[in-house]
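Please describe our next protein:
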Amino acid sequence: MQERWRKQWADMQGRLYITCCIGMLALLSMMASSSWVPLASATQQSTCQATLLAPVANARIIAAFDGPAQPWLAGHRGVDMEAKTGDQLRAPLDAVVSFVGSVAGKSVVSLRGEVGTLTFEPAATQLSVGASVQQGEVFAHVEGHSDHCDDHCVHWGVKVGNRQYRDPEALLTAQRIVLKPW
């Protein structure tokens, strides 16, 4: 009986070892993939600072993020911030202008930075694609056509990787992650 128990115990240990190895490989491959993007540098996390600055002065969110359960489903993939035509847009982080133009008849400006791609509509800029902007620098102004933000707001979206959208409002809040004892 004892011999049988020892064999089962050795079998179970072997399976546990293999499962742990597979889990570690999966974790390492996820961290190495291009879709894994850290939200803030270690110094920002240790000092408990917000990752992004609000792009609109005295920002007030009038329509919250409502991301879809699946990337292909309908949803509100950003926030609408109260703004009027001509209001300045400030860079929420150090970034590069990645798109300026019209998408489905909407005036759009996009920035690419540490957290992913940030889109603003309706927005216009004099900057060219590839221009660098520093956090807090005016990079555009509210202008143009949008299907839901004409003359009273600007839509701001944050896209990480290919299809994952983040709530910009969550990135405006200082976040500190700690482990707590049981």
